[in-house]
Amino acid sequence: MAADAAVVVVAAADITGRRDRFGLGWRPELAAGILTNRDRIDLIEIIAEDHVDASRAGLRSLRRLAAQIPVVWHGLSLGLASTVPVDTRRLDAFARLVGETGAESWSEHLAFVRGGGVEIGHLAAPPRSPDSVDAACHNLATARRIVGGAPLVENIASLIDPPASTIGEPEWAAAIVAGSGCFMLLDLHNLYANAVNFGEDPVAYLHRFPLERVGSVHLAGGRWIDGPNGARRLLDDHLHDVPEPVFGLLTELGRLTSQPLTVVIERDGAYPPFADILRELTAARQALAAGRAMRAGIARAA
Amino acid sequence: MSSPALEAFLARLYTDETVLSQFLEEPRAVAAAAGLDAAAIVALCELDRDVLVMTARSYRAKRAAQAKPRQRPSRFWRGRRSAP
């Protein structure tokens, strides 16, 4: 109970009154649980690709949903960090969803997803270089113009260090954020996975990202997978609980930042009872509140 | 250095088992045959091949999962003006 009280008392708020918020990725399997627990869930994040071809009836349903709970959209397929210009038809579809539902924001990944006419089927890390920074900024400007608002841009997990990279991932993300004016959706499990997979200290790795530009946070889980010749990687699969070190990173992020954050837990399968998901949301609130409390304590001491 | 050609080659490595096998056998020749520049070829030859295999496997699993029919959005919310 004491921890719950801390959640209420210690939270960041800006001059407009916005506060830290906590939500879930919208999945059909979680819909009933979300809608019967709206008092404990501040918002939902919907995968745009699930609805880009929505009929007028489908859009009405989405508007009704958005009237019940704040909605943000999340994209998977735009490939905004590709050196190939983004497909404006895909952006038109995003603009329709964002506009029709009055969503407050949308987000996409710093990834490429296709090349030479081949669909990879998932997010891939592009070579991190000045060229891909410039290309991403160009694509983000196009996205902002067509959709009507800039997306938050998300760091991705990658098993492989992309070849021909000349810039570290945090510095590459920072350059894109600076060049595009976008805010970041910082996925802390992706960050954690990349850190442990490439021999970095996760907390030190967090410090290198442009934390003052983080608007939203993703939390998720994953598992270790084995490859040939003893190779081992942490895979971000969204099928497991959020691990404790990732909650620790959220506390550290709360300690280091003053802006309100929107935190979303992603789960794509192997769904536990909804009560467990609510407990995970509470753990997220507590983790961020702990960081906010540390920051407040430091400020008082100063 | 990054280019549409390099992204296209990576997309083939991640999705085409034949191209991946050929690349693992003769990385320089396969990358050169794809028309990549010298810097890209050197970078590709330095890739951790075991992790490249893991990466391709991971993408294959993702595509297989996507091929399964997805559950449609629940009627619990689609058909109601307000939830209970």
Categorize the overall geometry of chain A: globular
Which two chains have the most extensive interface, and how many residues on each?
A-B, 50 and 48 residues
Total helical elements of chain B:
6
Measured as a percent range, the helix fraction of chain B is: over 70%
Largest sheet of chain A: 8 strands, parallel, barrel
Order of helices and strands of chain B: HHHHHH
> How large, in whole angstroms, is the Cα Rg of chain B?
20 Å
Q: For the CA atoms, what is the radius of gyration of chain A?
A: 19 Å
What summary fits the major beta sheet of chain B?
none
Q: Distance between the terminal alpha carbons of chain A, to the nearest Å?
A: 29 Å
Work out the helix count of chain A: 10
Number of strands of chain A: 12
Shape of chain B: elongated
Separation, N- and C-terminal Cα atoms of chain B: 55 Å
What is the structural class of chain A? alpha/beta
What percent strand of chain B? under 5%
How would you portray this structure in words?
The complex is a heterodimer of chains A (302) and B (84). Chain A is an alpha/beta fold. In chain A, 42% of the residues lie in helices and 19% in strands. With 84 residues, chain B is an all-alpha fold. The C terminus of chain B is likely disordered. The chains are: A alpha/beta (302), B mainly alpha (84). Chains A and B meet through helix 2, helix 3, strand 5, strand 6 and helix 5 of A and helix 1, helix 4, helix 5 and helix 6 of B.
Summarize the structure.
With 302 residues, chain A is an alpha/beta fold. Chain A has helices spanning 2-9, 31-35, 56-68, 88-101, 130-147, 169-180, 188-197, 202-207, 244-256, 274-301; strands spanning 21-25, 43-47, 71-74, 106-109, 112-115, 118-124, 152-154, 184-187, 214-219, 222-226, 232-236, 262-265. Chain B is mainly alpha-helical and 84 residues long.
